[in-house]
Every structure is written in C-alpha cells, then in structure tokens.
Sequence to fold (326 residues):
Amino acid sequence: MTMPVTNVSKDPQAMTMTIVADFPVPVRRLWDAYADPRQLEKFWGPVGWPATFTRHDMYPGGESQYYMTGPDGERPAAWFEFIAVTEGQSFEVLDGFSKEDGSRDLESPVMRMVFAFEETTEGSRLVHTTHFNSAAELEQILEMGMEEGTLSAMSQIDAVVADLQSFAAGQAVTTQLIGEHQVRLSRVIRGTLDEVWKAHHDPELLRRWQLGPEGWTMPVCEVGTAVGETYRYEWEREGGQDRFGFTGTVLEIEAPHRSVTTEAMIGQEETATTNELTLTPVDGGTLLSLLVTYPDAALRETILATGMADGMETSYARLESEVLSG
Fold:
C-alpha cells in the first residue's frame, strides 16, 4: 500500500491534528481529485469503506453530502459546508455527521478542516489540518479511529491522481447509478464556469446546442432563472414531426454553480424527477455533474435504456463545437 503521508502531528493545546502528504503530480491534478466527486469517492472513505457523494458543491456556502458503505452494509453519513474556497490553493469546510434522515447531527462533534495545496520540487503537497472544539473532543475523535481512517483513505490517492485519462476533458458522458433511484451523469465541458452556466440559461444559446441527434429543432425554450419560476422546452423534427417536451419548476438556484429543478415530460407530470446540476472548474474546463432522482428504480432503468446519456453527449459535443469554441 502506497503511503504518501510524510508527517502527522497532534497538538492538544491548539486542538488540531495536521497531516502532511506529498504526491508526484502537479497541484492542479491533486486539487481536481478533491473537486470531482467521481474521484473523491475513490479515496475519501478508508479502505473497505467506499464513499458515495450525493452532493458536492465546491464553492463558498456550498454543501457536500455523502455516506460510506461498510463491509457489512453499514452506511454512516456525513456532510461538509464549504466556508472558503481559493481555487487551486485551499479550501475550508465544516465537517459533521448526519442523522438517518439525512439532516445534520449537531449533537455530534462538528470539526473545521482546512486543506492547503502547495507546489513542491517533486510535485505537490497537501497539508490537511483538522480543528477540534476542545482537547477532549480531539481525544474522543482519535479514539474513534479518525487518524487511522484518514491515513487509510489517503493511501488511495496516488492511484486516483495517476489516472490522467478517465476524468479529463474530451471524455464522453459517464453514468453512475447511486442507490436505488438516482443516477449521476458527468462530463468535463471545454469552457469556463460562466460560459457553461450561461449556455444552460440563455434561450438563444440553448436553442443552438440542446438538440440531441441531428435533424431536431427547439421551437419552445422558456427558461426559469429564479426559485419558483417554471421552464418549458419543446423539440420537434425538422418539418414539425414527433413533437415532445419537458417542463418543471426551479427549486434552488445559485449562479453560476448550482441549480435544482423538477422535470417531467409534458403530459406525464406524475413521473417527475428532481435534477441537481452542479458546475465546478477543473483542469481543461468545467465539470458538469447532473444528479437525477427518479420516483422509483423501474423508471430510472426505463429512461436510461432510451439512450439518455448518448443524447446528452451529442448535445454537449455540439455545445463545445458550435457555441463555446467561438
């Protein structure tokens, strides 16, 4: 097992534990491993306890929600709240446990963690400092196995950052099933955060790229840009055949990072999904993560079987080539 950790220090007076680890990759590569939930899942949990992130909003005020799955099926859950983010250099979060219903367990310890990324002659260094509320809490958390668990988790980072291809720009939409009725679709779009956000919320731009296969047009494009507003998109083949569309309501929106909407095919509103769109700057562009929650597993399977991911890939490729390239 590779162990990049070079130093662990505990200071009861300062109520901190600091872990220093070195990696033979550029700072940006290491940063992106923490910014991309697909990669973070591969090393956030200790060996044998893989993590699943159902939310990961890496911007000030953003949240992350995740659970780890133990060898016997246990699923302890936790959350982050991002206090500060300086892209490529550092981020700071509050870190706590979640209750079974997903809400924050504020009766358990809530720690403050700072992750600082530095360039070295050999690559990059991560300085991970956890701040506790008291010396007693530090001792309590250490007795729970936090140090061993963190070191076990970090032993997996080298393998993740060595993979230079799977998460790079230019890869097609990836699909990951989460739980029984969710799916996460991800892709790095070659464009800035603001450009990709605008392309998803400007009707003129949407009509140019969100078309799926060749031969379709978008005669109706009504965008919702505030909580409570509705949107309506309709497509048809050139010539006016096979018209269909989707409608929904904006539940949350925080430009240019995150939006949450409902979505239902027009005429089939009883099968509405909840779509959580998150945009995150990464090397080569902007990581788009779309978490879709379906009413049940059967509908998820039915929709994915229609070639949903392939249709999205066609549209995103058009977005890059016909909208963002110029």
The CA atoms of residues 181 and 301 lie 9 Å apart.
